[in-house]
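Hey, I'm writing a tutorial for new members on how sequence and structure tokens pair up, and I'd like a real worked example in the thread rather than a made-up one. If someone can provide the structure for the chain below, I'll link this post from the tutorial.
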Amino acid sequence: MSLTYDWLSQFAESAGVVYLFLFFLATLVYALWPKNGVRFHEAARMPLRED
């Protein structure tokens, strides 16, 4: 089997799409995880807090 530029570029495009989709899912899970919700809520209120 001969690896050509066309085959390698197609593989890189496909692998890149899969990688970015998995990264998106991981980020979404992290952002919506209940334990992190408290941290994000506190961070959102930080500018309004008076020290």
